[in-house]
Write a structure and sequence with these properties.
single chain; 380 residues; Rossmann fold; Helicase, Ruva Protein, domain 3; five-stranded parallel beta sheet; 57% helix; 8% strand
Length: 380
């Protein structure tokens, strides 16, 4: 048992892609880099931008391997078998240097890097310098880095990664070839989790994996961290109910019930439902945000052309489509507006429960108000 615990590796590390082809959801980046490696038309500096956990540092490491790989695949991927690739995978490569700008952000750190860049690699074609969270460098450090970044020696390649491109000096941006990484789709994350679960012999419900993907908000690393947590919690059997309870997520079912009460103009039932949610320990603000998302999903599900924008588990897509038919677009837009106003007032109100209860009463009787307004317009 002790040996097993010592050998445990979290999924985010164990299943980190080692080739461009294995990277999920960033084909617009990986295909360009593969072609650049194959045609030997690499820029001297790259800037990888995007949200956390979407593959920026992973792609930087794959590119660093690829430029020194002696047996590139026909697709432009590193082979992971040659001496250079093995040295990197085993953490003993002398050609690839990684620096975390969050903790090494001063002028002295950059000056040391500038000195190191001068040395020609003893083996391989390039010395690759990966600077993560580069936006954390001070202005003085950026200025010290400018000359080296503009005219690096031919053996040097810089790969900068950041989650906040707007904080980087324009003079640095203009010297880099920029790639914007996207949030990974729910479907892409779900399929990756499914493959890992099957490889690790973990039982799962596909709806549960989709819910994890939704919670991760486009970040593969976050999804894998949640996946590991739930694997341990559920004794390797990840169900939809386990995900709901462990991540403290309000089931969409409560919002479907609430909209049914709106249709029935039953504000008492709506208030009792809200009280039931509070007694289960959910925060009022989380309920409000979920309600906003529910109205957004109903508006999206109202039109056939936007139906594909629904980011919900498969078993709920048809539910949204059907419930959207019960309400006019005008009513849904007004309901969305009321929820948005409540969200803005939430942080400044002293009684958050009363705020949301008043919102629910307004929502339940919203249809009657709209009908009265329309009637007055006709009479006038």
């Amino acid at each position: 048992m002790v040996a097993r615990m010592q050998n445990y590796i979290v999924s985010a590390r164990k299943y980190r892609p080692t080739t461009f082809s294995a990277v999920v959801g960033q084909e617009h980046v990986t295909s360009t880099l593969q072609k650049a490696v194959l045609s030997n038309s690499l820029a001297h500096a790259y800037l990888f931008c995007g949200p956390r956990g979407v593959g920026k540092t992973t792609c930087a490491r794959i590119l660093a391997k690829a430029v020194n790989c002696t047996q590139l695949t026909p697709q432009g991927d590193p082979c992971n078998y040659c001496d250079s690739c093995r040295a990197f995978n085993e953490g003993r490569s002398l050609n690839i240097f990684e620096m975390d700008a969050a903790s090494n952000n001063g002028v002295d750190d950059i000056r040391a890097l500038n000195e190191q860049v001068r040395f020609i690699p003893q083996s391989g074609k390039k010395s690759v310098y990966i600077i993560d969270e580069v936006h954390m460098l001070t202005t003085q450090a950026f200025n010290a880095f400018l000359k080296t970044l503009e005219e690096p020696p031919p053996h040097a390649l810089f790969i900068l990664a950041t989650t906040e491109k707007h904080k980087i000096l324009p003079t640095i941006l203009s010297r880099c070839q920029k790639f914007d990484f996207r949030r990974i789709s729910v479907e892409g994350i779900t399929q990756q989790l499914k493959q890992i679960a099957e490889q690790e012999n973990i039982q799962y419900q596909i709806d549960a994996l989709q819910l994890i993907a939704l919670k991760a908000e486009g970040g593969m690393r976050d999804a894998l961290s949640i996946f590991d947590q739930l694997t341990n919690f559920s004794n390797r059997n990840i169900t939809y109910e386990v995900v709901l309870s462990n991540l403290n997520i309000l089931d969409a079912e409560c919002y479907f019930r609430l909209l049914d009460y709106m249709k029935q103009k039953d504000h008492a039932a709506a208030l009792l439902l809200f009280n039931e949610i509070l007694e289960k320990g959910f925060e009022p603000f989380n309920f409000l945000i979920g309600l906003l998302e529910h109205f957004r999903n109903l508006l999206v599900g109202k039109q056939t052309s936007t139906f594909e924008l629904l980011e919900v588990t498969e078993n709920y897509k048809e539910r949204y489509k059907q419930q959207a038919k019960n309400f006019s677009e005008t009513l849904l837009l007004n309901a969305f507006q009321l929820c948005s106003e409540a969200e803005l007032r939430y942080k400044t109100t002293s009684n958050t429960r009363l705020l949301i209860e008043l919102l629910l009463i307004k929502l339940v009787h919203l249809g009657s108000v709209i009908d009265l307004v329309e009637l007055e317009k006709k009479n006038n």
